[in-house]
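Q: Got a minute? One more chain.
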Amino acid sequence: MELRRLRADLHIHTCLSPCGELAMSPRAVVEAARAAGLDLIAVTDHNTTENAAAVARAAAGAGPAVLPGIELTTAEEAHILGLFEAGADLAPFQAEVFLRLPQAPSKRKFIKDQVLADAEDRVVGFSPRCLFGATELAAREAVDLIRAFGGLAVASHIDREAFSLVSQLGFIPPGLGIEAVEVSPRADAAAAREAFGVAADLAIVRFSDAHRPEEIGAAATDFLMAAPTLAELRLALAGRAGRKVLPP
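A: Always. Here it is, folded:
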């Protein structure tokens, strides 16, 4: 199978994330990803996967490929990305996350900032949950849950001074089960590996963490893969079968 360079931004929020702009509708996300020349994106809203399917439907036919995902907030208030195969039924996974998310309702000012939308950008509801809050899942439990449902886990923006494993724990726990670590758009990957003690067998990636349409693709990672799928991404992160993370 022929391998090719594929450009990916796998940390994108939609209008469902309380910190995401309302302009981050499914169609707007897809249009911005196409304009940025991306082959693969992932929808990673805070503690929810509920807008991912709408983005995938909006991209159907013309691309880019879309992986459903999530940015889980652990009990330590560290962020961990979970990425899943396209088309996966994530309702059981989401139910497990919601069981571990405090049942306190979202503050009134956030409710209309947590927009559930369809592929045509119609508003279909608002999430009443406290999506910006921390779950009751410790970091290891969060990773285990992602993996139990077939996903791969990535430590979010480890160089940030808040909401990262390093900022909250002081280190990246060995044997955690993550398959990569993400650094912020302006961080140097090689310097980050040394500064934050990233194990040699962990890939370092850079994504946009986009909250506005113009941020999509502002930071991305190129992979050598046969197709824009989760299985190929897993091989590339591990450097197996000729697949790999390509230098910027």
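A: The first strand starts at residue 4 and ends at 12.
Q: Perfect, thanks.
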